[in-house]
Amino acid sequence: MSNEHFVRNIASHDEEYSRWYTDVIYKAQLADWSLVHGCMVIRPYGFSLWENIQQLLDKRFKATGHQNAYFPLLIPESLLAKEAEHVEGFAPEVAWVTRGGQDDLEERLAIRPTSEAIIGETYSKWVQSWRDLPILINQWCNVMRWEKVTRFFLRTTEFLWQEGHTVHRTHEEAREEVLRMLGVYQDFVENELAIPVIAGQKTEQEKFKGALETFSIEAMMGDGKALQAATSHDLGQHFSSVFDIKFQDMDKEMKYAWTTSWGASTRLIGALIMVHGDESGLIFPPNVAPYQVVIVPIWRSDEEQAQVGAAAQQVQRQLGDFRVHYDGRDEYKPGWKFSEWEMRGVPLRIEIGPRDVAARQVTVVRRDTREKRQLPMDGLSATLGDLLREVQGDLLARARTFLSDNTVAASSLPELQEAIAARKFVWAHWCGRTQCELAVKEKTAATIRNIPFERDKAPGSCVNCGQPSTGPVLFARSY
Ligand SMILES: [Zn+2]
Asked: Is the peptide bond prior to 459 cis by the omega test (within 30 degrees of 0)?
């Protein structure tokens, strides 16, 4: 199979983005579908992305004082139903267990769509005094939401995520936690995934059901659509009053605690694919790439094979600090391997042939720019470390340029419609009323992604009704 043939098995990134997305996921062996609609199998290459994401996020959670725990998968219906707005928001998506073995259950059990209820109920037993606070717990788990239209990583019936659930003595402390964790997500997504985001507050319409306020970070995908990369919720005292999380405060008064929750999921893998990929396939940022470096030996004779193979393995040993894969497969030609690893998004490829061995050097090719350079074998570990950092930084810079090139302002509804149709992020004034937000959604299919923290505060008039606004908000179509 020639290189051209290999790449032609992927739909065009620029012309058929949505097919390209599915094609690269299959071709790169990231995921597969199972027999249950919307339930995704994450293959080893895809799962190692998740493991890297987990490690880097988990480190940040622990550095901000959180511990991990695990709560049950099943939630009694009566418990879930306690918070009316919350249950109403999730009701259409909940999967139920109604039988255990041969018997019908007396009470249906929900498979968790999120864990506020089960965790809230547990916390009510743990919190009695202000001395028990704060509680700072995260759990890594799966959740289930019965989705009709599904898409690899972006919308699957069962998905993996983490959910942080914290309890605080004062609203001020809870509020600090909510914004701290949004900051943790922003730092992680920008610096590890090389994806620039816009942080802000969700509107009343788009907030988490049952929350006082929801904050999000929003990213721009390669087709100009938005993806909510993570959310952080100020739950106020809603859940503590419903689940009876109360404590005796320093002044001896009994008070309801203030709670928060925050989460990020395997959707982040979808974002990685869509933000960085190109016509030739995936491009992974070095910090989370399953393999940061792939070594492809080149030989024509048995004699060369022995010589090159030995040198290549010596290079591999030198690079023990990195995630390195040695591709010694005999049944594929080097050109085919180059094309495959390009498609699978490995940031750096090392080629070693007889001439390289003789010169004590290797040829290194960057996936993102295809730039080729010869580097001496001596000190290669340090040189590659620098190069990987450079690639990481360049990917973020490239994504930032794409985001700013595709963000515009609109001062009227026709302008907004036109910009949304052209797949842009659009700044436009909004009066703050849900009816106008819904009217715009109806006309453009765009939603208010968030009310960004950093925005021009100049007053203007709502693109829908013309009434005064306190500043522009961010509209876009979204995944
Ligand atoms: Zn309006």
From this structure: no
State the pLDDT at residue 65: 98
CB 284 within 8 A of CB 347: yes
CATH 3.30.110.30 boundaries in the chain: 407-476
Can you give the pLDDT at residue 85?
A: 75
Q: Which helix (H) or strand (E) holds 401?
A: helix 380-405
Ligand 1 centroid vs 220 CA: distance in angstroms? 25
pLDDT digits (tens, 9 = 90+) for 139-164: 999 999 999 999 999 999 999 999 99
> Hey, which CATH number is domain 3-276, 3.40.50.300, 3.40.718.10, 3.40.190.10, 3.30.930.10?
3.30.930.10
**CATH 3.30.930.10 domain locations along the chain:** 3-276
**pLDDT tens profile 421-445:** 999 999 999 999 999 999 999 999 9
| Segments of the chain scoring below 50 in pLDDT | 1-3
CA distance 372 to 405: 28
How many A from CA of 54 to the centre of ligand 1?
A: 41
Q: What is the pTM of this model?
A: 0.95
Contacts of 351 (CB under 8 A, 6+ apart): 296, 298, 334, 338, 362, 363, 364, 365
Taking the centre of ligand 1 as the mean of its atom positions, its distance from the CA of residue 208, in whole angstroms, is: 22
pLDDT at 217 (0 to 100):
98
Q: Are β-strands 361-366 and 407-409 bridged in parallel, bridged antiparallel, or unpaired?
A: unpaired
pLDDT the model gives residue 2:
47
CATH 3.40.50.800 maps onto the chain at 293-385
How many CB atoms are closer than 10 A to CB 270?
24
Q: What is the pLDDT of residue 210?
A: 86
| Residue 476 β-bridge partners | 447
CA 439–ligand 1 middle distance (angstroms): 9
pLDDT of residue 8: 61
pLDDT, residue 4, reads 52
Give me the residues near ligand 1 (ion), CB cutoff below 5 Å: 431, 436, 462, 464-465
Q: Is 379 left (phi over 0), alpha (psi -120 to 50) or beta?
A: left
CATH number of 407-476: 3.30.110.30
User: How many residues belong to the chain?
Assistant: 479
Is the four-CA dihedral 467, 471, 477, 479 of positive or negative sign?
A: negative
pLDDT value, residue 98? 98
Pick the CATH number of 293-385 from 3.40.50.800, 3.30.1330.40, 2.60.40.2890, 3.50.50.60: 3.40.50.800
